[in-house]
């Protein structure tokens, strides 16, 4: 079972990361702007959110190819926390073979973003 801290932990601006047999994950509290239907045209309000990132071993999130990452966003509430925990469990269970067949740090290189020259020429 994948552990997800209580809502209070995230409301205190703490992030939480973990690893479940090759599936790495990061839960990060934050805010985003959304349209405010009560505020008139063009009005926005801030909404508290919990962002969940999932990626395979062996590298940290920033050194993993973006094509291998998944991201979901939930409200920062008890319901959102429960939905995030359910998402993590379902993501792990849905692809057990993927998580168990992770490469060793010794057998692969970390992903690096393309240089401006590579982006301009269309190479990766």
Automatic annotation (TrEMBL):
UniProt-annotated stretches for the region Disordered: 103-124
- Protein name (Swiss-Prot/TrEMBL): Uncharacterized protein
